[in-house]
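This section describes the prediction task in plain terms. A model, or a person checking by hand, is given the sequence of a single protein chain and must write out its three-dimensional structure as a string of tokens. No templates, partner chains or ligands are provided. The sample shown here is typical of the held-out split.
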Amino acid sequence: MRAVGSSIPRFDAQDKVTGQALYPGDIHMPGQLHMKILWPDQVPARITRFDVSKALAAPGVVAVLAADDVPVNEYGLIMPDQEVLVGRVGGLVRSIIDQVALVIAESEEQAEAALDLIEIEYEPLPGVYSIEEALAPEAPLVHPEKGDSNVLLSYRIRLGDVEKAFAEADVIVERTYRTHPQEHAYLQPEAGLGFVRPDGKIEVIVGGQWMHEDREQIAHALALPEDQIVVRYPPIGGAFGGREDMSVQIVLALAAQKTGRPVKIQWSRGESIRGHHKRHAMIARAKWAAAKDGRLLAAEIDVSTDAGAYAYTSTKVLGNLTLACLGPYEIPNVKVDSRTVYTNNIAAGAFRGFGGPQGHFIAEMQMNHLAEALGMDPVELRMKNLWREGSRLATRSVLPPGVTVRETLAACARDAGWEETDAGWQRPRVEDLPAAITPVHRAFSLDAAGGRKARGIGIATSFKNVGFSLGYVDESWATVELHGAGAIERVVVHHAGADVGQGAHTVMRQFAADFIGVPLDKIELIADDTDHTLNSGSSSASRMTFMAGNAIRGAAEEALRLWREEEERPAIATYRYVPRPTTPYDPETGEADPNIAYGYCTQAAEVEVDLDTGHITVLNLWNVTDVGRAVNPAMVRGQIYGAVAQSIGWTLLEDLKYDRGQVLTDRLSTYLVPTVLDTAIHIAPDFLENPDPQGPLGARGMGEMPFIPTAPAIVAAVHDATGIWFDELPLTPERVAMRLKEVGIEDQD
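The expected answer:
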């Protein structure tokens, strides 16, 4: 049996379900100290008094560290615009994500008690807390040292003649869309352990998504050579992009260096919610035009995102959103203006979909509005305009081969009851849907009054880039060792790609077994520290399966050559995989070849809306994702289930609340994430396998794709049920009920 294509159980499953796997918070060392962080309580503000002497004299306290203790007090994944610690007279607090000072003590309780002994006073400063405030004339500047604007970065795309196309159009749709921040809410809050090893290196055990990048940022802040830092990833309790930026990595290394003893930290859920970045809030104004036969003629979009107080990956997210807001459609005339702006909110950064959910919400909602204005079936309208092999992007580059968005749309539409007739695609009537795919409604507390229900169906499609983009030189290193005498008895694979719960380490083993032609039980994987691996890049951008598979294939092929032709024992080969180059947006026209490859996903949703309470139940969610090649089909389905649940949460339930930079929903009793009873009652996790020409054995990355089209599909279904369009997320029962009341539906019998 070949390993690739088989639903092999994850190698770490037993340890995780039995509790034997040790996550960062489970790891301890003899003589360890405990660290607590002093967080700011005013935003924005300047520190006018800062005295740690009482805290330093408190029982059990070993050290109190602040800004002056950091050798190079700056960090940042894209640009170093944030201080490691801001605690000093004159220090600036821009956001509650800032860390003021560290207390390191013999016990966690002693460290916690000493926090209250730090004497600190603030001078409040004027702030900006929304995109509109940040862009207003004379707005207070979050980073005055960067110039006279809060705009961190802007892009533009220009193609054709938009004004001429609007003048000639039969239908024009103009709408404003808003999406909201989202908390990652991974199971494992930030935790870790830092210590100085006998060889003098500082080791940090932590959860992350790119251990070599973590090492680079730690070394920079501590002014040490990178080879003096070792980062180790034990099992990681979820990430979704939320561990791509620094949290406790640098401060753990700093504390270990300063005290000479192991130092442990464990964040509470409240600290986690305030201490790491969020999904970007977005505002967009969109104006699209079409001919009466359904051909798209023009798209004009102005979109802004809230970067929060620091850059994190906002510039990269904006790059993806700038293209995603046009959807997977051939549009001959395009005008896009996009920007991301600093505010005094928690920083925004990577989150599953990476700009795709916000961008496709704009594009797919515009397609739904156009379909209604034209009196055309939404699948038919999409089919008239979707990309195909050889299509050109609005950036003037030809799409990479393997364009299968039409296949995903057709398959999903058929699954959900659409029919392709001589007159084109025809939407099913909800009452005609087969009973077998209309599940029994669950009982909820909001249903106690037995309210009136309305059902509807909607559909949306999407694409997602695979790999880093816009000129970044992507890479992934792997080493393969073949051991044995006459036959290969043992294979050791070195690859640093982080497994953040998605099963990447199992997939790497499956690839290696197939490339080398040995049973899976002969494969050993070394993937947990920077001492024994080379840079693999981040577990993000839907890239790890694609990049790791190609890197392991290259190393395996060379190791086999050495084994067979040179008769080396052991045969050891290292390979650096670098995909085809991409190019950045031209600053005036947006011309670019932005991405290595793409994946495609379509979803249809059937919903039931309680017309009295506003509660929305997703009855059915049909998903079709083209994964190229399913390396492990069971894990592919698991990714679909997880992405859909998380996206339904973003669409209907999760509502992160700020008040002048302070987060109000800082616990899981106030920030509600979906449980099993809040997701779709029935999910069809279907996928296609059209091999990607660039992918290892044809595989594409797919973990983000099933998140992206969920929101517009659900919103279209709600419109089908109620006749009301919602252009702002989330569709909480309160928001839906208020809108139903505005239009009078709740008063109808």
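For orientation: The CA atoms of residues 81 and 310 lie 6 Å apart.
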